Amino acid sequence: MLEGNVGKGAKSMIFTPNLPTAGSYNVFIRSTNAPTRASNVPFDIVHGGGTAALSLDQRKGEGTWVLLGIYNFAAGAAGSVKNSTTSEGFRGVSEGSVVNKGFRGVSR
Asked: What is the value of pTM for the model shown?
């Protein structure tokens, strides 16, 4: 997703993997970093224990795979990772550009 700091609240990306086995997975995002990126990019991770809401500062880092956390998932496509330009609650609207190049889950 590349939103160019426009269309806040109208853009999102959802990654829904079809996992071969249930278990604990490291969830990563691939993003680029730059001073113009958002410092509060919202993510919602739907996993076996509910939904984890977090935010990521894309101004920091090295532009590589970033670990969002470790979560338990059921086999199949019940879990997901959603990235958007706005969210309900404490995270609000992202300020700055949101750029994501992909998601990945690695079985532990």
From this structure: 0.77
Please choose, from the candidates 14, 19, 16, 13, the residue with its C-alpha nearest in 3D space to the C-alpha of residue 73.
Answer: 19
* HSE-up (13 A, CA, CB side) for residue 56: 29
Residue 85: give the domain boundaries: 12-107
The angle formed by the CA atoms of residues 67, 4 and 39, to the nearest 5 degrees, is: 40
In the structure encoding, which two tokens stand for residue 55, read together? Answer: 């935010």
Beta strands in 1-108 (DSSP E): 12-15, 23-31, 41-47, 50-56, 65-73, 80-84, 100-107
| Domain count along the chain | 1
Contact 97, 38 (CB under 8 A): yes
> Consecutive sets of 10 residues in the chain, 108 residues long: mean pLDDT of each?
51 86 91 76 90 85 82 95 66 58 72
Residue 1 domain-assigned (yes or no): no
